[in-house]
Design a protein that fits this description.
With 63 residues, the chain is mainly α. The protein is 73% helix and 0% strand. α1 packs antiparallel against α2 (32-44), α1 crosses α3 (46-56) and α2 (32-44) runs antiparallel to α3 (46-56). The protein is elongated and about 45 Å long.
Length: 63
Amino acid sequence: MMNFGYSGIVGLLVLIGDVWAIINISQSAVSNEKKLIWIVAVLLLPVLGLILWYFLGPRGRGV
């Protein structure tokens, strides 16, 4: 039986946040190079990359 504690829930929330960030990054209007840099940052640094993207990253299509 798998034992999910708080770490499992936190990991799942980080995963959901990262997927959400990657989708939003790919839909943004910035150049492909910037999209690639942000996606790599989110993938390599899941928590820090997500936080940085939230405050500094590209926004939706209309930007």
